[in-house]
Amino acid sequence: MSMRKFAVTPGFEVGGTMFRPEQLAVLGSVVGEDARIEMTGFKQLYIEMEEEQMEEAQRLLRAAGLQVHPAGFVTKSLIACHFCRGAEEAGLDVARALDEAITGHPVPSPLRIGYAGCALGTSEPLLKDIAVIKMRDKYDMYVGGEPRGLKALLAKQLHAGLEAEELVPMIRSLIAIFQEQGKKKEKFSRFVDRITLEQLRKLTANARMEPAG
Q: Are 163 and 179 in contact (CB under 8 A)?
């Protein structure tokens, strides 16, 4: 019996990342008795189940409104705040566009990308590999956070005063740079230190004002 793993998330909304009861019921009914379900620090559930049943299970999970993503060394779905200031003021549409654009790309090590709709930062964005923080009608971007270990690191500011339409090209540029220049299993925080923040600023400068499509 071959087992494979994938990730499931309900996405996010005002109030946070929330599963509906019927979604959990579907999840429990389709993955099988031998499946293992793990809560991760990425606000995703990892599902490990029989490979031959996985395609149909994923179809039913998507039909229930859940997102299905690869597990492992990929960019994770966006880790967003609770949008306590409201969907419009906190930029819920911008966060959803980011989530759709950046999730599931293969990378040298798992990449956590955070979003906060204001400076309160309830999603702890500065502990993420890449973070976007909405500051009134502009956005600041940070890189290199590290939440684990005795020497946890806060992310450093990469760019300030970005427009909403600059965010997707900028993060896609960072992902591409990490894909091309990152070492296997290298943490993104170490990658930032090795490449240097100033070099990353130069390498991503052309991404500003590029179309997000």
A: no
The alpha carbon of residue 126 and the mean position of all alpha carbons in its chain are separated, in whole angstroms, by 13
- Per the CB < 8 A criterion, the answer to whether 188 and 109 are in contact is yes
- For the full predicted model, state whether its pTM sits above 0.85: yes
Report how far residue 201's alpha carbon sits from residue 98's, in angstroms, rounded to the nearest whole number. 20
Phi then psi dihedrals of residue 125, to 5 deg: -65, -30
Q: What are the structure tokens assigned to 202, written together? A: 């130069």
- Pair type for strands 79-80 and 113-116: parallel
* For the chain, domain boundaries: 3-71, 79-208
Region of residue 91 (phi > 0: left; psi between -120 and 50: alpha; otherwise: beta): left
SS3 state at 143: strand
Whole-angstrom CA distances from 45 to 69, 128, 133, 140 are 10, 18, 25, 29
The highest-level CATH class for domain 3-71 is alpha beta
Please name every residue paired with 140 in a beta bridge, in sequence order, or none if there are none: 133
pLDDT in tens, 53-67: 999 999 999 999 999
Task: Report the amino acid identity of residue 190.
Answer: R
Fold for the domain defined by 79-208 = Sulfite Reductase Hemoprotein; domain 1 (3.30.413)
| C-alpha to C-alpha distances, 187 to 30, 63, 107, nearest whole angstrom | 35, 35, 10
pLDDT tens across 84-93, in order?
999 999 999 9
Q: What percent helix, strand, coil does the chain show, rounded to 5?
A: 35, 25, 40
Cα angle for residues 21, 110, 68 (degrees, 5° grid) = 30
Residues 6+ apart with CB under 8 A from 100: none
